[in-house]
Specification:
The protein is of the alpha+beta class and 159 residues long. The protein is built from six helices and seven strands, in the order ααβββαβαααβββ.
């Protein structure tokens, strides 16, 4: 049984400790609320200690700049006044269809790994005006930060 569990863990899309280490570069994480990973997806919710991203995360409020920074650095976050992350993804897809659709695909694929808490948080944050949308090309992680609730939602699809 232990060997089987080790094989399943080794085949998981991500591991909680590795994900936390990566995310700590960009956000001040608190407690893990929920984490689940399988072969083709991973999804998590973390409490955050502050409502914003750290300096290591490039931040913009402009769709065109988000596309350019993502293409050059592979990592970016965007907060647009009066818009939700979902609206920002649509605008990004209109600017650069491949990037915008890639983010949408990640969110859809990650649903298979979302527990009840993660799915609820994801649905809430993606339509919350003023929440932050972030993406990391290297890990394929879509991140949604809702500063008022102090939650960071992470979604990863098949890589």
């Amino acid at each position: 049984m232990l060997v089987l569990m080790a094989l399943v863990t080794a085949c998981a899309r991500d591991e909680e400790a590795a994900q936390r280490d990566r995310l700590e570069q960009w956000f001040s994480l608190g407690k893990t609320v929920e984490f689940k990973a399988e072969r083709d997806c991973a999804a998590a919710v973390y409490q955050v200690k502050s409502g914003g991203a750290k300096a290591a995360m490039p931040l913009t409020d402009n769709v065109g700049e988000m596309g350019r920074v993502l293409a050059s650095r592979g990592l970016v976050a965007m907060t647009r006044a009066g818009q939700s992350p979902d609206q920002s993804m649509v605008a990004l897809a209109n600017f650069d269809r491949a990037i915008g659709m890639q983010m949408r695909r990640v969110g859809l694929e990650a649903r298979a790994c979302m527990g009840e808490i993660t799915e609820s948080a994801f649905r809430h944050v993606i339509v919350t005006t003023g929440a932050t949308l972030a993406y990391d090309n290297e890990s394929g992680a879509l991140m949604l930060l809702e500063p008022r609730s102090g939650l960071l939602v992470v979604a990863m699809g098949a890589k």
